[in-house]
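Internal ticket - ligand job 469, flavin-adenine dinucleotide:
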Amino acid sequence: MPILSPPPEPFSVTVPVLIVGGGACGLTAALAARGAGAEVLILEKDEIPSGTTSMSQGTMCAAGTLAQMEAGIEDSPEQFFEDVMAKVQGKVDPEFVRVITREAAPTIDWLSAYHGIPFAVDKAWSGLGHSVQRLHAPPEKTGEDLMGRLLQAVERAGADLLTDATVVDLYADESGRVFGVRVERPDGSQEDVGCDALILATCGFANNPDMIAEFIPDMAGAHVFTWENSQGNGIQWGMELGAAVADMTSFQGYGALAYPQEMLFNYNYVIDGGVLINKRGERFSDEMADVSGQGVKVMRQADQIAYMIYDETLHNRHKHLKETRQALEVGAVKTGASASELASSLGLPKDALQQTLTDLSYAKAGKRDDAWGRDFSGTHDLTPPYYGIRVTGAIYHTQGGLDVDENARVKRSSGGLLPNLFAGGGAARGMSGPTCSGYIPAAGICMAMTLGRLAGQAAADLPRPKYHA
Ligand SMILES: Cc1cc2nc3c(=O)[nH]c(=O)nc-3n(C[C@H](O)[C@H](O)[C@H](O)COP(=O)(O)OP(=O)(O)OC[C@H]3O[C@@H](n4cnc5c(N)ncnc54)[C@H](O)[C@@H]3O)c2cc1C
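stdout (structure tokens):
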């Protein structure tokens, strides 16, 4: 990802705020910059902006929102901060976490009030690190819906969006000041755009095997389920400009990707009392200890395969979810009138599955401790007919990236800030600490939209360089 010297002639087009990447981060940054009165241009590689955001369930964590208040949920940024710090066992910059946990709620409230995105609390997701219900989603609870609503808002706000526009190079001087970018179009033609401030919203590097091997060597060659353009472009440019990076070893995993269909399957069944077993028909973890680290635990099972087991009560509770409907349509979900029948449908040892379900009943009834230490309170005994789906584990997105300050301005590795560079979402460091186990549910969109808003506001407010005067 070369950095080119600034051209001797001025660019034919220069915008005050230039954003690379049109996912949740880039679009939110555009809304904030427009709100602060700046002209904005978003450059997006794809013909239709989708990004990792469109693959997600569109949920974002935030504490102290109006939506929570309306739902009667007591919460605060302080409680959110405590939960995040507990999840990462203190291994993350607390000042950074303070900023995110404080600014997430104003981001949700602002998007709802000013940009017509009706966020509500998703009460189905609780626990897994959050001490109260604080996941927020638009009505359909899909990333596609979130993207559709953000794109409409961006159009209404008058931000320009150029698609089929891949940024291939940056123009910058030795101080790290960015002057503009070089854009490549699908026919191979190139054009240059100048800027006063640049926001990198290109997501992380989950789909860049070389970067995975360099920064997360334990996961080299691991199964990846992410957006194809998550190749770490923004992080690479930032590093070449002398930026600091943080928590590059961190990623979000997931242990419930329907296999071999490669479709996201809902964890709601596990949250409400379902379990994951391996090919031997045995459980291998406390499935609620760590939803992200569960991905790695599944990858460690024979053939990297596990089976999510639940019952008809849970099926009926969640069968309306988009991911479940899709899995049902392609026949990925199997059923059985008894444990033995389900075992036949899934190709599992019958006696072992029966024993696992019996042990589970005892644990749920409080007659014996769960062998894996899971707390089943609030869940019911699974009863026939049973349901099951074969799943695998995968890396979803990386959590390390460019280190940023409270305005999403990129820090130099040598101290201080780069003059006019901002980053957010997957391109910036997250609040998950150094491992895969620190990811708290819905932190991905939280980082994208919270840092996007902060970056957009601050980039718009950045004093224009003298050469424009
Ligand atoms: C299956 C799945 C489910 C998930 N579910 C959730 C969830 O429910 N809640 C949650 O909080 N997080 C979830 N996540 C994580 C979340 O989706 C991401 O953290 C978030 O979408 C990142 O947003 P972003 O704007 O940084 O990146 P993206 O949405 O990926 O946007 C980046 C954009 O930059 C573009 N781009 C990249 N390089 C260039 C270039 N050189 N030039 C021009 N454009 C470029 C890309 O095409 C892309 O459109 C999930 C992730 C996956 C994979």
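Auto-summary: The domain at 3-250+399-468 is CATH 3.50.50.60 (FAD/NAD(P)-binding domain). The mean pLDDT is 95.
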